TrEMBL record:
Keywords tagged on the record: Oxidoreductase
Species for this entry: Gordonia lacunae
GO molecular function, one term: oxidoreductase activity
GO BP annotation list: 3-phenylpropionate catabolic process
Name of the molecule in the record: Aromatic-ring-hydroxylating dioxygenase subunit beta
Classification via InterPro entries: NTF2-like_dom_sf (IPR032710), Rng_hydr_dOase-bsu (IPR000391)
Length: 165
């Protein structure tokens, strides 16, 4: 669906800005603000099967609803969980946006993410295909109703990362 004119659409630009804001908050480890970007009925998913869209019936690395996102944020902030102790410093680059769908109240974006992390004297890089469903709200109160992060190595062993993709 994406053509060059699509990127002049203010709804699409708002959705892209929200995806970039999410990346900024995650890199800053501002997990409460990150959590607030999501609608109450939203899901944050990291599937193992790179081709599935049936997340309810598939095995996922992450399949968080509001309650599970809240618990994940608490764990990341407590400092007692292995993922929170000496949490990785990260920099995300999100680009190659394509628009799957756009309406007056929803934009579905696909993008590519490269996440660079540094933890315990070790650098790591994770690549992912992202899909964000953005609910456009009045006065720019846009929120994420679905985020799917398809890691390019999702079918291999993935160690606990200590950060959110």
């Amino acid at each position: 669906m994406t053509d060059l004119h699509t990127f002049n659409d203010p709804r699409v630009l708002r959705a892209i800005a929200l995806v970039w804001k999410e990346a900024e908050l995650l890199d800053a480890k501002d997990y409460p603000a990150w959590e607030a970007l999501y609608t109450d009925d939203a899901h944050y998913v990291i599937p193992i099967d790179p081709d599935t869209d049936d997340f309810d019936s598939s095995l996922n690395m992450v399949y968080d609803d509001k309650r599970m996102r809240r618990l994940r944020v608490e764990r990341m902030m407590q400092g007692y969980a292995p993922s929170a102790v000496a949490a990785a410093r990260t920099v995300r680059v999100i680009s190659r946006f394509t628009v799957s769908d756009v309406s007056d109240d929803t934009v579905i974006l696909r993008s590519a993410q490269i996440l660079n992390a540094f933890k315990r004297d070790t650098f790591s890089t994770i690549g992912a295909e992202l899909t964000h469903t953005i609910e456009l709200g009045p006065d720019g109160s846009d929120r994420i109703s679905l985020k799917v992060a398809r890691l390019i190595d999702s079918e291999d062993a993935v160690s606990a990362s200590g950060y959110l993709v």
